[in-house]
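Appendix B, Record 12. Input sequence as logged:
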Amino acid sequence: MINLGRYKLFAHSQQQYSARAIALVQRSLVIDMLSVFTLNFPDQTKWNLNPESFTQAEFQAFLDSGINVFHPAVGSGGPNAYENAVNFFGGWNAFIAGSDTRLMRIDSVDDFARVKASGKIAVILGLQNAEHFRRPTDVDFFHGLGQRVSQLTYNSRNLIGNGATERRDEGISDFGAAIIERMNTVGMAIDVSHCGDRTTLDAFELSKRPVLITHSNARVLTNGHPRNKADEAILAVKKSGGVMGITGVRMFVRDREPTTVEHALDHFDHVSKLIGPEHLGVGSDISLSGYDSMPPALNQQLRNSYKGSYGFREKIDIEGLDHPKRMYDLTEGLIRRKYSDANIEGILGGNFRRVLSEIWTT
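Logged structural output:
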């Protein structure tokens, strides 16, 4: 008998992982800085309204994923942004409170130390826009509702700045500068994942605390995709002391086929060589099962809500990173790329934990 040091981690799956990969995931505090609980949106509404409808089998899938902390922020905005945000955080707070034996909300740096021993799945509340901040004091209000992260913009323009798919980007407004100052004061993390180039760089210049890119990739590897970040922005991450999370969304990884796990790993390598692995993390930008498993009508509705510059293809996910155990596959990839154990633990969550601890300490 030959022992190759590889194991089937789950009885119902034939996928095998190395002992090293399994150990790394199991001992790390794994943080996915952009992963919604479900892309079948009626399910999330059901859980919010009736937490008991969140079944043990559904909870077990989250436990088995190896991800300990989820940041399930969604895109938002429009004329009812404030009311929609109140409802969003109210729904999540009801879901967490009604599932208190399974879920916990991350409110402070001390909460990170309790997650793994609790046996619960932890949630960092945030939104992928800041349009619900009508005035600086609204930052305090939503912080009180549990919000700990906010993108400054989604893909479009708001009163703060400009999104990645806007025709022009004049950068951060005076109002936006006031919002950034208030976020710094209360200890709410600033995220520029969907911001345009000038708005992104302005945020790094204006913020007195580290700025995050929770889920984006390197533009230079994707033929100029507007949702990805130029090297200038990636270098600003290091200067601010921030962290950049890499996503496995297909069109953000490569602009043509084939698009594989190896091409996703190229983005980790590019950012690591540019600013160091201590500024790298994971922001998958998918649910546990990915976009391609969505009900067809919802999938088409999602595609129709974005500009053509997003460049959707037949598939949105990447095979190997499109399933609940994707963190194990990612860890195997990082091992193949010769990252050290310490660096992998940082990428899996340690780096985001470190920077959030700095941002949230007021």
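The two ends are 57 Å apart (CA to CA).
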